[in-house]
Amino acid sequence: MASQLDHQADMLLRWKSSLLVLGDPYSVAAWKHGATTPAHVTGLALPAVLWCITAVVQVMLSSYGYWTGSIPVTLGVLVNLRKFDLRGNGFSRLIPSSLGNLTRLDYMDLSSNSLSGHVPHEIGMISSLTMLNLSRNSITGSIPGIVGNLTRLELLDFSSNHVRGSIPPSIGNLIRLKSFNVTNNKITGPIPGSIGNLKRLELLDLSVNEITGPIPGIIGNLERLELWDLSSNEISGPIPGIIGNLERLELWDLSSHEISGPIPGSIGNLTRLELFDLSNNQINGCIPSSFWKLTSLTTIALGSNQMNGILPLEVGLLSNLSYLDLSSNQLTGSIPPEIGQCRALSFLCMSDNLLTGPIPQELGNCFDLSDLDLRRNNLSGTIPVTLAKLQELYNLNLSYNSLSGGTSFSVNTRVSLDHNMDTCGCMTIVYRRREFSKVDSKNKSLGMVSIWNFDGKIAFQDILDATDCFDEKYCIGVGGYGSVFRAELQGGGIYAIKLLHSAEDCTDEKAFHAKIQVLTKVKHRCIVKLYGYCSHSKCKFLVYDLIERGSLASNLQEEQLANELDWLKRITIVKDVAQALSYLHHDCGTPIIHRDIKSSNILLDCDFKACVTDFGMARKLKKHSCSSWSTIFAGTCGYIAPELSSTMVFTEKCDVYSFGVVAMEVVMGKHPGDLLLPFFCRTEIHMKLNDILDKRIIEPKSDEEKDIILLVLVAFACKSAQKPGQQWSRYIKHSQTESAQQPSS
């Protein structure tokens, strides 16, 4: 009973810390642990105490994960509430209609819970709302038409629910809207013409639904649009020429529809366009000449259409291009030598076309090329020897052509030259299936298995043998994207094998391979080495260095292990993580955002050196920019930067925020919880260092105290500021200087 009361007391104190109260008429600020028996507070009846404090203007319980049950109906009495943030918890059941009483509310985030049922029509009464985020729940029903009353909205997010029905025409009333996201639902019907009224819209994500009908010409009114994802719906008809008005567009995904007709020439106006995906449609005609003037393009995906014509010389103008897929079309003519001017090219697929002539030797100038697929064409001549000099090339498929000759390729290159005139090549790191009973006992033809970026001595079967076909007894951890197994191979090496949950989830296989290719180049003493990726038709896994001591989280949670982490070790661990992040953001060629920095993704070796791991969430950044283009939610509750709830754009600052949380966790020995709340980060809030230090280890020495104070200041700076600021930069320089002074191991 006593422990239950203590738990209730903790819950009350967390609620207290989340509240911002005008006047504090009930002396909530005076509540202290042990000052009274929790049972005296009306048996933890939150409606009787907290929900009835009408002076409350802010409730913030985001990213804790502590809270379950339903949102109290009596919430409606908080008539002065302006900000209501419950994201990242376990709230379930219905959204109470009493929310309609909160007429002063301007910010409501209920994302990442387990809420169900319909959105109450009373939501439409909160006319002061500027931000409404209901994403990642189990909400059903349709988007209520009364949402059109929320004319001050700037962000509206229903993504990743079970919403049905059509987008209501009243959406056109939201003329201040900047971000509208309904991806991953079951929305039907056409795109309403009223959407053309949303002239301030910057992000429009309607992907992964069942939307039908044409692209309305009125879409040309959205001249501020930067990201438009309409992929995986049932759109038909042509692309209207008025899309040339969208001159700010940077990402445009129209893949997987029944869109027909040619690409309009007005696309040449979209000079900021970086990603264009029109794959898996019924596009015909030639690619317009104006298209090749879009020199900002990094990704072009036009595969699986009915386009004809030639690939022009102007393709060489696309100096930023890294991904080009023109496969499964009816392109004719030869591959122009000018394609060798696309020096950033890492993926080129032109398979299943009608191309003729030789493979240009200038492709050897594309030094980052990792995947070249020209199979099923009418190519002739000798295979250029320049291809053998491409050190990053891991997949070369020239089969079903009329090529001759051959050359010796890198041990890391997978080569297919089948059905050519007279070719010989070196196919490496390819293994036929042996017995794989525990993964699939029925399928007798599982296809190829390949491991890239390995030393060639470790085969697929060796890993199966070392883990007894991924038997549970070798499992040393389970995460959101896979289970980790310990594999001790016959050659003496010990590796961590991350078996990805469900091979079917890797739908964009080629893009995933390209990403792995980048990550294998990451080399830093504080980042776990990723050796490569194994692709099998029934399982996929990543091969890492094994870091024996386990995660920082487990070392902090277990009493005995935590006692071994003295203050000097903890200070060094935080510096290691800071250096790893600085390297990813600034020093590894293409900048990378990790997106899921947390204590369980930081491993400790036998010498307590910290190594950052798990790049399942990682994304490449475009050069000269601080933002990535993913609008898919990622990260872990309790470590996520607050601005993600409104922008859904991952930047370096998101990693820095998460670093601040981890730094405080190292100091406190546990997740900082309430200290993440904004009013704890204000400069006028003072606290004694001893009040937050982990009490399980001896007090720090005087010189260690200085480092801890600096660490805490940096942690708060990382969590509170809009920009990490000079504190973060100075800390990086400080940690790098001290690291350079230490003897290398």
From TrEMBL:
<keyword id="KW-0597">Phosphoprotein</keyword>
<keyword id="KW-1133">Transmembrane helix</keyword>
<dbReference type="InterPro" id="IPR003591">
    <property type="entry name" value="Leu-rich_rpt_typical-subtyp"/>
</dbReference>
<dbReference type="InterPro" id="IPR051716">
    <property type="entry name" value="Plant_RL_S/T_kinase"/>
</dbReference>
<protein>
    <recommendedName>
        <fullName>non-specific serine/threonine protein kinase</fullName>
        <ecNumber>2.7.11.1</ecNumber>
    </recommendedName>
</protein>
<dbReference type="InterPro" id="IPR000719">
    <property type="entry name" value="Prot_kinase_dom"/>
</dbReference>
<keyword id="KW-0433">Leucine-rich repeat</keyword>
<keyword id="KW-0547">Nucleotide-binding</keyword>
<dbReference type="InterPro" id="IPR001611">
    <property type="entry name" value="Leu-rich_rpt"/>
</dbReference>
<dbReference type="Pfam" id="PF13855">
    <property type="entry name" value="LRR_8"/>
</dbReference>
<dbReference type="InterPro" id="IPR008271">
    <property type="entry name" value="Ser/Thr_kinase_AS"/>
</dbReference>
<dbReference type="GO" id="GO:0005524">
    <property type="term" value="F:ATP binding"/>
</dbReference>
<dbReference type="InterPro" id="IPR032675">
    <property type="entry name" value="LRR_dom_sf"/>
</dbReference>
<feature type="binding site">
    <location>
        <position position="498"/>
    </location>
    <ligand>
        <name>ATP</name>
    </ligand>
</feature>
<dbReference type="InterPro" id="IPR011009">
    <property type="entry name" value="Kinase-like_dom_sf"/>
</dbReference>
<dbReference type="Pfam" id="PF00560">
    <property type="entry name" value="LRR_1"/>
</dbReference>
<dbReference type="InterPro" id="IPR017441">
    <property type="entry name" value="Protein_kinase_ATP_BS"/>
</dbReference>
<keyword id="KW-0732">Signal</keyword>
<keyword id="KW-0812">Transmembrane</keyword>
<keyword id="KW-0067">ATP-binding</keyword>
<keyword id="KW-0723">Serine/threonine-protein kinase</keyword>
<keyword id="KW-0808">Transferase</keyword>
<keyword id="KW-0325">Glycoprotein</keyword>
<dbReference type="GO" id="GO:0005886">
    <property type="term" value="C:plasma membrane"/>
</dbReference>
<feature type="domain" description="Protein kinase">
    <location>
        <begin position="470"/>
        <end position="745"/>
    </location>
</feature>
<keyword id="KW-0472">Membrane</keyword>
<keyword id="KW-0675">Receptor</keyword>
<dbReference type="GO" id="GO:0004674">
    <property type="term" value="F:protein serine/threonine kinase activity"/>
</dbReference>
<keyword id="KW-0677">Repeat</keyword>
<keyword id="KW-0418">Kinase</keyword>
<dbReference type="Pfam" id="PF00069">
    <property type="entry name" value="Pkinase"/>
</dbReference>
